[in-house]
C-alpha cells in the first residue's frame, strides 16, 4: 500500500512542478518581456495541448516541433519566449510520460 501512495505522491509533485514552470514562464513573459498576458497564457496552454497530443510519437518528431518553434520565435523576435515555451513543451512531455507509467 505504501508503494502506491509514494507513486501517487511522486505524480502529484511532478504535476505541481509542471504548473509552477508554466506560471514562471507566464510571469517572466509578462513582467520581463512585456508580452500581453492573454496571448502568453494561450500559447502556454497550446504547448501543453500539443504535448498531450504528441506524447506517443518518436523523439525526432519532438525535435522537429522544437526546431519549428525556435525558428518561429527568431522570425518574430521572441526567441527567449519561444525557448521558455520549448521548455514547457519538453517538461509536459516528460510529465505525461511519467504520469502514464
UniProtKB/TrEMBL annotation:
It comes from the Bacteria. Keywords: Membrane, Transmembrane, Transmembrane helix. The chain crosses the membrane at residues 12-33, 40-61, 67-96. This is Uncharacterized protein.
Amino acid at each position: 500500500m505504501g508503494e502506491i501512495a509514494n507513486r501517487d505522491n511522486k505524480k502529484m509533485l511532478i504535476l505541481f512542478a509542471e504548473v509552477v514552470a508554466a506560471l514562471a514562464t507566464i510571469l517572466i513573459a509578462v513582467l520581463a518581456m512585456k508580452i500581453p498576458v492573454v496571448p502568453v497564457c494561450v500559447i502556454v496552454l497550446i504547448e501543453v495541448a500539443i504535448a498531450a497530443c504528441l506524447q506517443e510519437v518518436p523523439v525526432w518528431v519532438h525535435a522537429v516541433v522544437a526546431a519549428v518553434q525556435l525558428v518561429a520565435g527568431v522570425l518574430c523576435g521572441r526567441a527567449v519566449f519561444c525557448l521558455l515555451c520549448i521548455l514547457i513543451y519538453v517538461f509536459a512531455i516528460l510529465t505525461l510520460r511519467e504520469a502514464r507509467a
